[in-house]
């Protein structure tokens, strides 16, 4: 069970090791007092669903001949069992089984089906009262911990998946969650898996707030963006050292690989949050450079006072995307990344879009390694595309974009400099490689941050300088002299939050 455990590290924390051994029928079972209450988890059919799903996820990411049909057979059997009375009397295994089915379906590139299964898992969690841990103090401590782990896992996975696609979450909102007094903060004494999921769950509140604001308002104002970035920075400052440590070789064993993947998932969530919070500044800057008409000039003049901050925050967005791309390429280079990473591929695609978009601005102060970071996203997605059609689609989208960029940049090459940005740091590095100057890339100091420094989140519809254009897609295509393949690129993956925010029609992006 090493493969599914490693693949979901940092996203799901559903089983203790002894529970997995029990599912596999191993003789060394835990002590009686360690086992959760029998009424909650011992139904054989429900246990079989969890076992089949772990086997399906393991086969899905291994990538050997015959593994994908085998994975689907396991999934089909689990699905059949899950609907044979499984929903009439939900238990903890109901919630675990359906979130595992959602995880599998994301890996199988069936995102709508995955959301349906995830919705069942979140409702099962609500029925079981997992969000009200203070109401179940009489339960054994081990079962309370199990309920808390399942609740955090479902909440985190729900927010992560919903934020990627810009959809509303299904789980109970944070303001309605009632936890035991001992459940706050990141537990530095738990297992690494529990620490990573707990840290991610804490961050999910901020991430969900960013997406909600972007969805409801279409764009983030300066004050809201700055507030979100401060929340992100405060959260990253509380991470235990174990979540920022790296793995520099692939021979460390299953436990080291699981630890590294968990850290990568935590770091990617951080980078994605920063990208979402600053994306609008990058779009605003690039589009104002691409369109020098009177309306754009007037808008630029009106915002002259904030021009320096906007450029700074655009650089923060590029930084976050580049850090993510370099980290993932280092993970690939060290043999950490598995063949099918259902969430990582979407995060990396968002980073690739940001990096590619930043290269449109030849006058911007992006460093030479931004182009290298963009190539790194292509390399990792090409690898993931061997087992994931969705990752292959992402790779083709970015490849088409890259070809159009090369044509554009030949016509408008320029010297580039760099100055440090204050809002993002390299959270995790897995090696020494990864592009021009990555070892010394843009080191940050969080001391001396101006209190009035301004940010805006990626969810903001934020490119409000394109007055009079029919759509952002058409304008970028015109500026690039893009071929029909690039037009095809812009229409792919419309459900993805970052893609839709970059290429949505201008009348949806312009803010009053």
TrEMBL record:
Biased composition (Low complexity): 182-194
Gene Ontology molecular function terms on file: DNA-binding transcription factor activity, RNA polymerase II-specific; RNA polymerase II cis-regulatory region sequence-specific DNA binding; zinc ion binding
GO cellular component terms listed in the entry, alphabetical order: nucleus
Protein name: Putative transcriptional regulatory protein
Region (Disordered), start-end ranges: 169-196
Keywords: Nucleus, Transcription, Transcription regulation
PANTHER family: REGULATORY PROTEIN GAL4, TAH-2
Top-level taxonomic group: Eukaryota
GO biological process: DNA-templated transcription; positive regulation of transcription from RNA polymerase II promoter by galactose
Residue ranges occupied by any Xylanolytic transcriptional activator regulatory domain in the UniProt entry: 48-175
Keyword Oxidoreductase in annotation: no
């Amino acid at each position: 069970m090493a493969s599914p455990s490693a693949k979901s590290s940092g996203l799901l924390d559903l089983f203790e090791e002894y529970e997995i051994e029990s599912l596999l029928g191993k003789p060394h079972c835990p002590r009686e007092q360690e086992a959760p209450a029998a009424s909650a988890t011992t139904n054989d059919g429900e246990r079989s669903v969890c076992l089949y799903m772990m086997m399906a996820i393991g086969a899905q990411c291994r990538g050997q001949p015959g593994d994908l049909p085998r994975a689907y057979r396991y999934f089909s059997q689990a699905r059949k069992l899950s609907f044979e009375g499984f929903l009439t009397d939900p238990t903890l295994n109901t919630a675990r089984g359906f979130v595992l089915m959602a995880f599998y379906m994301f890996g199988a590139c069936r995102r709508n089906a995955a959301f349906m299964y995830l919705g069942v898992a979140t409702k099962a969690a609500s029925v079981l009262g997992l969000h009200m841990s203070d109401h179940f103090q009489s339960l054994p401590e081990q079962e309370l911990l199990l309920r808390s782990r399942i609740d955090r896992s479902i909440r985190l996975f729900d927010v992560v998946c919903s934020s990627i696609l810009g959809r509303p979450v299904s789980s109970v909102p944070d303001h309605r969650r009632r936890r035991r007094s001992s459940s706050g903060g990141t537990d530095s004494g738990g297992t690494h898996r529990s620490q990573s999921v707990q840290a991610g769950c804490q961050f999910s509140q901020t991430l969900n707030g960013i997406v909600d604001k972007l969805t409801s308002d279409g764009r983030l104002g300066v004050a809201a963006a700055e507030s979100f970035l401060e929340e992100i920075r405060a959260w990253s400052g509380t991470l235990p050292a174990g979540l920022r440590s790296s793995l520099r070789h692939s021979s460390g064993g299953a436990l080291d690989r699981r630890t590294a993947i968990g850290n990568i998932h935590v770091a990617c969530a951080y980078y994605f949050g920063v990208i979402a919070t600053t994306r609008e500044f990058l779009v605003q800057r690039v589009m104002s450079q691409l369109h020098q008409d009177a309306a754009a000039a007037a808008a630029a003049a009106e915002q002259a006072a904030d021009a320096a901050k906007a450029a700074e925050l655009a650089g923060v967005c590029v930084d976050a995307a580049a850090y993510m791309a370099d980290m993932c390429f280092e993970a690939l280079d060290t043999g950490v990344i598995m063949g099918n990473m259902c969430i990582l591929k979407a995060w990396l695609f968002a980073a690739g879009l940001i990096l590619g978009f930043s290269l449109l601005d030849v006058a911007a102060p992006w460093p030479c390694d931004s182009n290298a970071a963009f190539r790194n996203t292509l390399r990792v997605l090409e690898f993931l595309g061997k087992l994931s059609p969705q990752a292959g689609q992402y790779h083709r989208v970015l490849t088409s974009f890259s070809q159009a960029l090369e044509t554009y940049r030949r016509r408008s090459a320029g010297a580039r400099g760099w100055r440090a940005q204050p809002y993002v740091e390299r959270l995790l590095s897995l090696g020494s490689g990864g592009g021009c100057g990555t070892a010394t890339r843009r080191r940050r100091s969080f001391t001396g941050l101006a209190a009035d420094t301004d940010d805006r989140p990626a969810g903001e519809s934020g490119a409000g300088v394109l007055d009079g254009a029919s759509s952002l897609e058409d304008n970028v295509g015109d500026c690039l002299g893009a071929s029909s393949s690039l037009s095809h690129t812009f229409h792919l993956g419309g459900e993805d939050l970052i893609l839709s925010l970059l290429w949505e029609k201008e009348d949806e992006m312009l803010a009053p």
